[in-house]
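Input/output pair, single chain:
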Amino acid sequence: MTSKIRSINDLENCLENFGFRGEALASIREITRILKFASKPTSSKVTFEKVFLEGRPGAVTCASKERPSSGTTVTLLDFLHNVPVRRKKISEMNDTEDIKVQLECLALIHPHMSISFKNVATGKMILESRKCGSVKDVFGQLFGPVLSDHLKELTFDIGKGVQVHGYVSTRGHYTKSYQLIYVNRR
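Output:
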């Protein structure tokens, strides 16, 4: 159990969040030379920024570059700079692909969010999904209309508050890479 969960009922409240109030970000802060947050609240015209340099926090400032819409951008520079043993174990290509797959999953279960993943060193955009009205629309953005056009929506109400909602393809695929199962948006 973490300090955020004191009873089984607390799990109900935690399922609405991506995590437990930034605990993972605190760990990332310690192993990243520069960690930058740029955030624009829905009700604001200003983008705020906070930078951590080698784990030390800077002040919250107004960003020099405005975000075009509300939301938050998290930028990591020089990841694992102070953990050379771990850094040697990283395969940039494999780890980048693993991160991309995880972000694709987040985009699919949260179609109301825009998600992008960019290698700032090379300038290459690795993944980009825009806000959509449905999972099927996001699937089309990520994997193309050839696959998404064959998806059929399924919904079952089993009773006692249990519902099953999803999509199934009317066309087979040679790998399991598009078999995605989520419970409670996780």
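The beta strands are 32-40, 48-53, 56-57, 61-62, 71-79, 115-119, 124-129, 151-159, 162-169. Residues 23-83 form one domain.
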